[in-house]
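Milestone M4 deliverable, item 7.
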Amino acid sequence: MNYKRVLTIQDISCFGQCSLTVALPILSAAGLETVILPSAVLSTHTGGFTGFTVRDLTDDIPGIAAHWKKENISFDAIYTGYLGSIQQINQVKDIIKTLSKPGAVSIVDPAMADNGKLYGAFNDEYVEEMKTLVYSSDITLPNITEAAFLTGIEYKEKYDKAYIDRIFAAMADNGAKTVVLTGVSYTEKTTGVAVYENGEYSYYEHKKLPVSSHGTGDVYASAFTGAYLQGKSIFDAAAIAADYTVKCIENTAGDESHRYGVKFEPVLGYLIDRLK
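Output delivered:
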């Protein structure tokens, strides 16, 4: 395996199997030196929990980045997840500019919306700023809701390939280089990942599970990043990440007490085997 250094920037939900508590072990299992920059610390994630604590770390980020620069620490890849504010988006853009090694790749998961709606903390101004990060990145990993907000195209629950082609064309017109669009379903029993790379469309289809789980977007993005940085093609990385995410959901199915995330740890061996 290639030994590369990746920086991932997103929040820490201490309990709940999402964000950095997912990204760090998955990227490490992929054989990567994984450096974390937490944007906030939460006692739990916000899905289904009440009374959680939040500590915003926006003011700490510039000092951390400055120390790394002083120590000549730089990165082969920078992968971002949930960012809590416009200020943090701008901080991330500066970090990508100043701490990337020559030829480094930037991977952006614009974690801001799902099921046709923005997350509660975000507004149109945030979307406009996220566009500047997404469209300057090398690879972006939106779901269909996020892609709709990023392009201004109406969100649809039911669609055909022509609709996905419109999204890809609009993103390319705005400067997107490579897009991995998740949760693309053309039939009721299947879903998959649509990839736009070098002007070409490809699609990886897999079975659709009758459950949804918190944190699977973070599992997917982390597994994709690990696979891609270990030399897999964009399409193969997208497929491996999809298969691994399905395994995680299947491994959790039937356990009603584990509603807050997926049991991704016991199937890390599957991901490691796929990367060999």
